[in-house]
Amino acid sequence: MSVKREHWGSRLGFIMATAGSAVGLGNIWKFPYMAGDNGGAAFIIIYLALVFTIGLSVLLAEIMIGRASQSDAVNAFKKLGPSGFSIVGYMGIAAAFMILSFYSVVAGWTIAYIVKFASGSFVGMDAASLGGAFGAFISNPVQPIIYEAIFVAMTVFVVLGGIANGIERAGKILMPILFLILIALVVRAVTLPGAEKGLEFFLAPDFSKLTGSSVMAALGQAFFSLSLGMGAILTYGSYLGKDANIGKSAWQVAFLDTSVAILAGLAIFPAVFAFNMDPGAGPGLTFVTLPAVFDAMPGGLIFGTLFFVLLTIAALTSSISLLEPLVAFFSTKGFSRAQVTMTSGFLAFLLGIPCSMAMGDWGEFKIFGKNFFDLMDFLSSNLILPIGGFLIAIFVGWVITPRALQEVSGTGEPGLLAKLWIFILRFIAPIAIAAILINGLR
Ligand code: PHE
What is the atom index within ligand 1 of the atom nearest the CA of 24? Predict the structure, then answer.
């Protein structure tokens, strides 16, 4: 028996949902501090070049595979080509659970910080005491797990609604709110006295800080940020109809994702410099340095609360795109959407518990020298995503090329851009990805 596949209500709905997947903690929490650490604008230039060549090509490849097969990430490969490529789908299932586990923990922190900010509990604290408060909170064995549970429950709630009424609706409501908040924060930051130093830090290229490993970091970040290599975008593409112009959609998603990353930097660095704080705080930038910055600025209670609302929204529209590929796959095994959504959400929540505990009591427990949180992040982001992206590039660039060209060009002759797309997938993407992989494993 085959049930009719659900589809997006509109192309705009697809764009919002897919941009929602791409725009996440990776853009707002990770990108700014990576750019800060790697020469600011120099890193941004390399990042842009990678996003709009390799990133965009793999993004379009995933949308195309989904749309052509109208299947989940495992069956899509079986339908279109040699079934061995379905390994990409199985690895994607594993990656979805792993990313969900640590992602939900960090997203739980952001919800907790909305509460803490709005209730004024950070008022009057300096960076040092905020650092202490953050450390105490994330290492607590109970509280962060409760917030993680709340975040997973929100994710499950959206996915239970299905494609058009759940995921699409969430994207159409939440993404415009996200943009409005982000723009308000940018305006606040760049109008602070002393903001110029931050703008300069973020926008004036310092090529001397750029190294081989920062180029690698930029490519890894491009993959994570565009949600590539694990079947999330493929699954979203599978809910598109035949008439959609997928080339244009891929462009728009890549553009939105990159804009948010850059705007996040413009919201953060001018404010950090205006208050003479340390821009190189790494991962703690968002949870320690920024709260101190907000505390010091006029209207900080509101802007601080808004910032963590922004992070939570960004995380939620990404986590639903991590849960949906699981739902799409397990639904083919004869279970209902409600059953698989709740079961997968619950399993991801359980896997999150050791991630959260790794920040405290279980921090000493290490596998391959990494605590559980870092292990989940490493295995998924540094291993499965690049391997998945590599295989997708090979699959489209070498194995199903005629079909791929036909999917993007419709009835017409493939144009120059379509040929360039195949060229990138055939040669550039596999070589570049193999390089990040080898570098990441060293
Ligand atoms: N793109 C998301 C981010 O930048 C993370 C993500 C990765 C989401 C893979 C789905 C799949 O935060």
Answer: 12
